[in-house]
Amino acid sequence: MKTIIEPFKIKSVEPIKFTTESDRERILRKASYNPFLIPAEDVLIDLLTDSGTSAMSAKQWAGIMDGDESYAGSKSFFRFEKVIRELTGFKHIIPTHQGRAAEKILFAIAGGKGNYIPNNTHFDTTRANVEYSGAEAVDILTAEGKKPDVIAPFKGNMDVGGLKKFIKEKGAESIPLCFITVTNNSGGGQPVSMGNIREVKKVLKSAGIPLFLDACRFAENAFFIKKREPGYSRRSLVDIAQEMFSYADGCTMSAKKDGLVNMGGFLALNDDNIARQARNLLIVTEGFPTYGGLAGRDLEAIAQGLEEVLEEHYLTYRIRSVEYLGEKLTSAGVPIVQPPGGHAIYIDAKGFAPHIPVHEYPGQAIVCALYLAGGIRSVEIGSVMFGKYDSTGKLVSPSMELVRLAIPRRVYTQSHIDYVAEVVLEVFANRRRLKGLRITEEAPVLRHFTAKFKPVS
Fold first, then answer.
1. Domain range annotation of the chain
2. Helix H segments across 208-253?
């Protein structure tokens, strides 16, 4: 088999800044050991997130020039609406400035005290928006999805038996809707099978509960279904994506992921009543229903990106480049979530640095070490991002402590990925020297964005 190459040519380049280790030590200290507070200029390879960091195509840039900036009834909106409706089949297409805005609007309508929102695993902004509404975000992930070293094809699946039990315990009337995140970001970028989506839909339909998808990485999930699920190998990715959406009653999407753009998102659904309320909130918080917080040029770029993202050569390259990094790390003994996910490699921080207790944030310690060793910015997904305190002030940790290396789309080449592997292996070889961290300042919600740390003495 020949080498899988980047299915594009590079037309424009951006220089990156090189720093010394002493430079990075000073920068890290000034940023209070939080990568979110490091200026991007001082990052060599930025794997903090794959959200909004894609390189856009020539056709997307051409669409930006062609964008219609009319306040109401922009032709760019009608192209945006047409592409999304053909892809998802949903009746109402509501543009927002990004995914969390769609979540905020939806849960302002469907959330509220006394309600529960089940999901395979909520990501940070989804959980925050659910809880801000007064509802409770509940994760019902399959058991194998909670074990980093277990190899299984669809570790993002929802636990169907657990969902049935949860509905029976809480009552369908207290569950306004259920979510499935495809792929499951908090669980290692793991995909959800079509069979699981179908089973979940059957359970929810019998209880009268709508199903929504968090569709940020729907194309990567469709690719895994094609490659791993029996009966789908000869289906087109467009067909597979359309079938996924056909089982749902709506979706939220940050187009900054599989929309291949730097800003934008949408809420799509079939319910006329919810759509009417959503558009009212949209006007108050985002903008008129045909632009929703976006410029016409953004709407054009999203429409084009949603067509490009389902090209099989692109997704073959995309998934393989992430898998390539995972193989290099695994061969050297670095513990990661197996098998590699679609958009990122997730280091198992407990296995990487077992000498650091969870209350000293082993993931954050690894994140800082990767920046110090090679100027690589990554993010902790563990007790910093999802930790809570009980009534006594004791930290309650999630089941996994992870470090995510999120790969931006169409940005880095194989030599960049090789460099990332070399830096991770260097830190891994010296892992016993890593020290934990303590939080010195934190916000009450989404603390990982702005928290400040100091090394434990």
1. 21-50+311-455, 58-308
2. 218-228, 237-246
